[in-house]
Amino acid sequence: MQAKVAELNARLASDKSLDEQMDSVAELAAELGFDALVYDYSPVPLDHVGELITPSVVRLRQTPKDWQDLWCSEGFYQIDPVQQVAVSSIAPFVWSYLPKGETILQRHIDRRHAPVVGYLHDAQLTCGVTVPIHLPRGGLATLTGLRPQASQRDLDDAREHLGDFSQIAHALQEAAYPLLAKESSTRAIRLTRREVECLRWAAEGLTAGEIADKLNRSLATISLHLTSAMHKLGAKNRVQAVARAVHYRLLDP
């Protein structure tokens, strides 16, 4: 397997896009028995009250056609127990949706997760492995491999390949990381360029009047930008708006 991972590293380095990298990874993951892949990345995985944010970047291979819509538009990410475990886990883990699977999920699944559980049973993708990768400045990426589970042997086989799959996931993330900035942003909040600029100056301790002088704009205009940013961030005042903008990495250069 080490030789195959080394070969994968070489291929990933030459791939020009995240989609090409996913194709390379999918080939090797299929040799380990994983029928489908889900990769996701978010610069901020949780909102300011601790709820999961739909990832900024999602790539799928061999998943059902409605997966993207359900997870990214219909709220399945927020009730996906695998994602909930991944955000607080530092180690790769095996999971199963079968009641007798005896994995970490059995301690977490409840009625809230019923839509996800039912969907994966219907899709016959009830077993898998997930590798959470916590990144600098708070970002989170995960690579998940999915497969059917007809017997205990399927789960045991997934466990046997956890280490190899983890190597694949880290190889993908290392190659993909430089590409992510081009297509990722926090989905939760969208601020205008001027709103971000005003909040950056507010973070430096400037008043609205001082920001107006810096940007050569009227006090009324600056106050409007700051108020708009506060509204989008759900903040009660400018201090809270700055704190939440920092949380969502909206003030990053």
UniProtKB/TrEMBL annotation:
Transmembrane segments: none
Any one GO molecular-function label of the UniProt entry: DNA binding
Database matches in Pfam families: Autoind_bind, GerE
Organism superkingdom: Bacteria
GO biological process, one term: regulation of DNA-templated transcription
The protein's name: LuxR family transcriptional regulator
Keyword annotations from UniProtKB, A to Z: DNA-binding, Transcription, Transcription regulation
InterPro entries cross-referenced by the UniProt entry: Sig_transdc_resp-reg_C-effctor, TF_LuxR_autoind-bd_dom, TF_LuxR_autoind-bd_dom_sf, Tscrpt_reg_LuxR_C, WH-like_DNA-bd_sf
Gene3D superfamilies the UniProt entry points to: Transcription factor LuxR-like, autoinducer-binding domain, Winged helix-like DNA-binding domain superfamily/Winged helix DNA-binding domain
CDD domains for the chain: LuxR_C_like
Domain called HTH luxR-type: residue spans: 184-249
This protein's record includes keyword Transcription regulation: yes
